[in-house]
Amino acid sequence: MERCDGRKKDELRSIHMEVGVLKRADGSAYVEWGANKVFASVYGPREVIPRFLARNDRAVLRCKYNMTPFSVEDRKRPGPDRRSIEIGKVTAGALAPSVLLEKFPNSMIEVAIEIMQADAGTRCAGITAATLALVDAGIPMRDLVPACAAGKVDGEVVLDLCKEEDNSGQADLPIAMMPRTNAVTLLQMDGEMTEEEVEEAIALAQTGCRQVYEMQKAALVSKYGGGDE
Ligand code: ADP
Questions:
Q1: Per DSSP, what are the bridge partners of residue 152?
Q2: Ligand 1 in reach of 3 Cβ (< 6 A)
């Protein structure tokens, strides 16, 4: 099958990552993933506001996901909507198992993801960028958290759908994971696939995550130098 942008069925879009791009954030990263352009910034650990959210045994991790009005073809209405609130929540859920939150009781770690240009797969690009920003902020993590989707287009399971494929496709299944232990921290799906196709998509998305993981490590090495993993 020929994909609209000429990729093989198990081929990622081209991905570029940069760590430490914002001067006033505690940590930041920029990810270009195909036509997606995403900034992630981290603030904290710091005082919990509002106060009642504080936990005395661990830090609270809050993630905000926002699409700028000019990030999509038809101008998006600015401000939060159901979709962005949901993506913020699942992003926090994808990252939290990896962050050593118990090291920072009574504090808050804030992650802000800004989608400057969207072309499908922005939640995966956002999680990937947020991981780098957390590391850049010096927040201890059990593992990096790469994310990647697989889906079904023209009846075939393929890796990393672009917008055109997402529009014409039958399903999309994003995954985030901690490759060291194989723990999956995000698994969503929209559309329809058979049980076998779902298995195939999960396996394929995990191979994508592992490639993204290597790129994350390379981006951190190019910022901070090599050394032990
Ligand atoms: P993801 O970006 O994680 O794949 P969705 O599957 O919800 O999330 O969205 C797929 C794509 O649809 C987005 O990347 C974006 O290109 C487009 N999109 C999402 N929300 C809007 C919106 N409100 N207006 C226009 N396009 C949108």
A1: 157, 171
A2: no
